[in-house]
Structure formats: C-alpha cells, structure tokens
C-alpha cells in the first residue's frame, strides 16, 4: 500500500525536470506514489519520469511591462491556481515539492493556501524568481548550491545538493581513463536549449584550427539546435572527423561517462551531473542567464579544481583550439581535474532530499530535521 501521494511541480526544462525525476525514483522506492505538475515543454522527458500521472495546469510568467500582457498573465496564474487547487483536493498529497520555473507557482500557492505541507528545491547558487516568490510560504528550502545557514532564509534552508538521475549514478561507476597521444579523445559539447547556438558556430571553426594529428583523434558528441543541424553537419563532413550531432541525446549519461573533456554551459543540473560522474570541464556560463546564476554555479566547481571557467565574451574559436591543444597533450592534468570534480560531487543528494521531503510531510520542523542529521 502506498504511503501517500507526493506531488512534484517543475518547469518544463531539463534543469528543473531532471532533479524532480531523481527524487521521484527515490520516493517510489520508499513506497510513495508520485504525480508531476509541469507544462507542455516537459513532454520530451515524460517517457522516463516515474509518475503515476502528469498534469498540466495553466501558468505564465510576468515578464512584460505591458499592462494588457500583465493582466493576461495574472489571469492565467489565477486560472492555474484554481486548477491546481482542484487537483490537490482530488489527489490529497502528503506534500507538494516545487523545483523552480513558473509552472510551479500555481500548485505551490494552492498547496500553501490549503494547508498542505510544501517545500522547494533550488538547483542554482542564486535563487530563481519563482522560488523567491514562494520561499516565504513554504516550510523548507533545499539547495543544490545554496549555503546552509546563510542566504535570505537560513532557518529553513538545507544544502542537499542536486539530485541526479539513476543513469548518472550508473555512469559515476565508470572510472576516468586518460587519453594519451595517438588515442581517441572523446569530447562532449552541449549548451541546453538556449545556450547551444554559440557552440554550433564556434566549435567547427575551433576544430578546423587544430593540427591534423589532434583533430583526427577527436570523437565529438555535440548538442545542436534543429535549425543549426545542417550547418554543423556540413562542417563535420568537410572536416572528415568522427562526430555525433543531435538536438537531444537520450543517452547523454553514457556519453559523459566516456568523455575525456566536457565543454558546456553551467546550469545547476549540468554542473552537478559532471561532478558526480567526475569529468573535467570547460564551463562557459550562459551570459543572458537571470541573476548570473550559471556563473555562480561554475565558480563553485572551479573552486575545487574540477573545471575551468571562461566567459563567452572571452572565448573565441582560437582560444578553444588552444585549450584543446593544451589538454589533449596533457592527459595527467585532465585526470587531476576529473578527480577534483568527483570529490565535489554529491551522489547522495536524492536520498537526502527524500529524507527532507518525508520530514516535512510528517510536519517536522527544519530545526528538528537538522538535529537528526547531526
């Protein structure tokens, strides 16, 4: 018999959905039923998400200063909260857990108004707008990078780390094996839905600048937006090199496990996953990220020695080529970075977050929960 329903709410991007998915697996193992509230963008992830049912409620972000647009957004949020209230009254969850993104606002507001225990998880080192709006209303705040005992809500914040998917935990079992002179060098490049365009333009040029001996060693996995596939594919063919390009890889965990170097953005899930697996990285924070959260995430891993951080404004194809030349000729340095990244990883984050969920569902305070961890 189920211990009860846990309702997870997440915006429809991988950065929000993946941590929710990791928690869902843990909660299912512990005997809970899991339901997910999200938006239509999450459909690509839905096949693997262990939810009894996935619900879509109306939601909107208030990003415009146009009065008519603001009014429409407020009406949508009101409609979403009413729909979420009806859903919660029907499901009777023991707790509602939000993972950020504007689709979390209606269900979390509805939960707090109905007196249902609620908490949020913030993946980034800087709290996002949706979570900021909800932070005063919930009983607990779990943080991927948020400092425990610090920030705006020290009394209710617990640093759990970011939960990673079972596929990432499995990939973490694969040891890092350096690539030496003459051996294939696996390079993984990705940038998320918004950040991939820069790499689509910069990487082919950078690779064309490499010496032939290095270029022929490269085996590239690169995430490419659909509209850039033809351009990047043409460059790959012209360079006569081994490369897999696609808008989305369902086996990214396995590809990261085989990587000798990762070049990517620094979203919270990305930084957490490459840390748990333990792979050296060149992190290029997305320059248009709200509150510069990606820069803060990247700095946390760079401080351990597991990554090198370069701003996009300072990164040219020539610099990428120089970095690749240096690291492909220095496998020991990459091995040291891989080990440092792994030491920074938090593979038990999903278990700790599940413990926190159970505590709040049982109406224990965060102070009581912290004492049980001491």
TrEMBL record:
<keyword id="KW-1003">Cell membrane</keyword>
<feature type="binding site">
    <location>
        <position position="294"/>
    </location>
    <ligand>
        <name>UDP-N-acetyl-alpha-D-glucosamine</name>
    </ligand>
</feature>
<dbReference type="InterPro" id="IPR006009">
    <property type="entry name" value="GlcNAc_MurG"/>
</dbReference>
<comment type="function">
    <text>Cell wall formation. Catalyzes the transfer of a GlcNAc subunit on undecaprenyl-pyrophosphoryl-MurNAc-pentapeptide (lipid intermediate I) to form undecaprenyl-pyrophosphoryl-MurNAc-(pentapeptide)GlcNAc (lipid intermediate II).</text>
</comment>
<keyword id="KW-0961">Cell wall biogenesis/degradation</keyword>
<dbReference type="InterPro" id="IPR007235">
    <property type="entry name" value="Glyco_trans_28_C"/>
</dbReference>
<protein>
    <recommendedName>
        <fullName>UDP-N-acetylglucosamine--N-acetylmuramyl-(pentapeptide) pyrophosphoryl-undecaprenol N-acetylglucosamine transferase</fullName>
        <ecNumber>2.4.1.227</ecNumber>
    </recommendedName>
</protein>
<dbReference type="GO" id="GO:0071555">
    <property type="term" value="P:cell wall organization"/>
</dbReference>
<keyword id="KW-0133">Cell shape</keyword>
<comment type="pathway">
    <text>Cell wall biogenesis; peptidoglycan biosynthesis.</text>
</comment>
<keyword id="KW-0132">Cell division</keyword>
<dbReference type="InterPro" id="IPR004276">
    <property type="entry name" value="GlycoTrans_28_N"/>
</dbReference>
<keyword id="KW-0808">Transferase</keyword>
<keyword id="KW-0328">Glycosyltransferase</keyword>
<feature type="binding site">
    <location>
        <position position="124"/>
    </location>
    <ligand>
        <name>UDP-N-acetyl-alpha-D-glucosamine</name>
    </ligand>
</feature>
<keyword id="KW-0131">Cell cycle</keyword>
<dbReference type="GO" id="GO:0051301">
    <property type="term" value="P:cell division"/>
</dbReference>
<dbReference type="GO" id="GO:0009252">
    <property type="term" value="P:peptidoglycan biosynthetic process"/>
</dbReference>
<keyword id="KW-0472">Membrane</keyword>
<dbReference type="GO" id="GO:0005886">
    <property type="term" value="C:plasma membrane"/>
</dbReference>
<dbReference type="Pfam" id="PF04101">
    <property type="entry name" value="Glyco_tran_28_C"/>
</dbReference>
<comment type="similarity">
    <text>Belongs to the glycosyltransferase 28 family. MurG subfamily.</text>
</comment>
<feature type="binding site">
    <location>
        <position position="165"/>
    </location>
    <ligand>
        <name>UDP-N-acetyl-alpha-D-glucosamine</name>
    </ligand>
</feature>
<feature type="domain" description="Glycosyltransferase family 28 N-terminal">
    <location>
        <begin position="6"/>
        <end position="140"/>
    </location>
</feature>
<feature type="domain" description="Glycosyl transferase family 28 C-terminal">
    <location>
        <begin position="187"/>
        <end position="352"/>
    </location>
</feature>
<dbReference type="Pfam" id="PF03033">
    <property type="entry name" value="Glyco_transf_28"/>
</dbReference>
<dbReference type="GO" id="GO:0050511">
    <property type="term" value="F:undecaprenyldiphospho-muramoylpentapeptide beta-N-acetylglucosaminyltransferase activity"/>
</dbReference>
<keyword id="KW-0573">Peptidoglycan synthesis</keyword>
<dbReference type="GO" id="GO:0005975">
    <property type="term" value="P:carbohydrate metabolic process"/>
</dbReference>
<feature type="binding site">
    <location>
        <begin position="13"/>
        <end position="15"/>
    </location>
    <ligand>
        <name>UDP-N-acetyl-alpha-D-glucosamine</name>
    </ligand>
</feature>
<feature type="binding site">
    <location>
        <position position="193"/>
    </location>
    <ligand>
        <name>UDP-N-acetyl-alpha-D-glucosamine</name>
    </ligand>
</feature>
<dbReference type="GO" id="GO:0008360">
    <property type="term" value="P:regulation of cell shape"/>
</dbReference>
């Amino acid at each position: 018999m189920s211990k009860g329903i846990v309702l997870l709410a997440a915006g429809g991007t991988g950065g929000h959905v993946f941590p929710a998915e990791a928690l869902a697996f843990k909660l299912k193992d512990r005997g809970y039923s899991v339901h997910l509230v999200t938006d239509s963008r999450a459909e690509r992830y839905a096949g693997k998400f262990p939810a009894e049912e996935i619900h879509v409620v109306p939601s909107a972000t208030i990003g415009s200063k146009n009065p008519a647009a603001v009014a429409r957004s407020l009406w949508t949020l009101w409609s979403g909260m009413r729909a979420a209230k009806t859903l919660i009254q029907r499901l009777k969850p023991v707790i509602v857990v939000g993972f950020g993104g504007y689709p979390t606002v209606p269900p979390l507001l509805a939960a707090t108004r109905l007196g249902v225990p609620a908490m949020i998880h913030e993946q980034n080192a800087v709290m996002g707008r949706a979570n900021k709006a909800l932070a005063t209303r919930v009983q607990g705040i779990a943080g991927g990078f948020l400092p425990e005992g610090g920030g705006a809500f020290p009394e209710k914040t617990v640093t759990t780390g970011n939960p990673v998917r079972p596929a990432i935990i499995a990939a973490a079992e694969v040891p890092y094996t350096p690539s030496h002179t003459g051996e294939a060098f696996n390079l993984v490049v990705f940038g998320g839905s918004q950040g991939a365009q820069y790499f689509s333009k910069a990487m082919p040029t950078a690779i064309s600048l490499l010496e032939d001996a290095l270029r022929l060693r490269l085996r590239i996995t690169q995430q490419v937006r659909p509209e850039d596939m033809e351009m990047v594919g043409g460059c790959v063919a012209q360079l006569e090199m081994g490369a897999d390009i696609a808008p989305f890889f369902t086996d990214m965990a396995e590809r990261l496990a085989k990587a000798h170097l990762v070049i990517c953005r620094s979203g919270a899930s990305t930084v957490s996953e490459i840390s748990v697996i333990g792979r050296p990285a060149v992190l290029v924070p997305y320059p248009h990220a709200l509150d510069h959260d990606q820069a803060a995430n990247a700095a946390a891993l760079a401080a351990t020695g597991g990554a090198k951080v370069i701003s996009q404004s300072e990164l040219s194809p020539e610099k990428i080529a120089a970095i690749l030349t240096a690291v492909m000729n220095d496998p020991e340095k990459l091995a040291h970075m891989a080990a440092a990244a792994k030491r920074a990883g938090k593979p038990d984050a999903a278990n700790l977050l599940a413990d926190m969920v159970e505590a709040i569902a049982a109406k224990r305070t965060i102070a009581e929960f912290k004492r049980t961890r001491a």
